[in-house]
Amino acid sequence: MTTYAIRPFGARPCTLVVCRGCCCGDAAKHPGTDHQAQLARLRAAAAASDGRFAVRTSDCLGPCGQANVIVVQPSTEGRRRGARATWIGWALDDDATDDVLAWAQAGGPGFAAPSPTLELQVIPAPATRR
Questions:
Q1: Distance CA 22, CA 61 (A)
Q2: pTM of this prediction?
């Protein structure tokens, strides 16, 4: 019989989940934000990170009143250290993108604290429907 570790495909890196649904990424709602450039910048940084963090997109994460939303998920090791996903709202400008990238490059939740400015943008995760 074959047995597997909890994650048979290796450890997962810190992951940035970028909302690009109905409100996040909407040029009509946030005309001063270059949403495509922000996503391209996040993806380029992840590609250059040598696997330290990854980026993926989601159609809608839910808290539309706080768009743009980015969820910073801890790596496997970050979770072992007790970290949980952190939801960031109002990630609309280069400064917010810089702070998210710096945190991901430092290891994300479980390894480093977000910048004081980014801490002000932390929002609660939407409640799970039951």
A1: 10
A2: 0.88
pLDDT at 2: 47
Alpha helices in 1-107 (DSSP H): 35-48, 76-80, 94-105
- Helix and strand numbers (H, E) in the chain are 4, 5
Parallel, antiparallel, or unpaired: how do β-strands 86-88 and 14-19 relate?
Answer: unpaired
User: CA Rg, the chain, in Å?
Assistant: 15
Angstrom distance (rounded) from CA 113 to CA 109: 7
Express each pLDDT in 64-98 by its tens digit: 889 999 999 999 999 999 999 999 999 999 999 99
Look up tokens 């996903």; give the residue: 85
Q: Coil, helix or strand for 16?
A: strand
Summarised one tens digit per residue, pLDDT across range 40-69 is: 999 999 999 999 999 999 998 988 889 999
Tell me how far apart the alpha carbons of residues 112 and 100 are, in angstroms, rounded to a whole number. 12
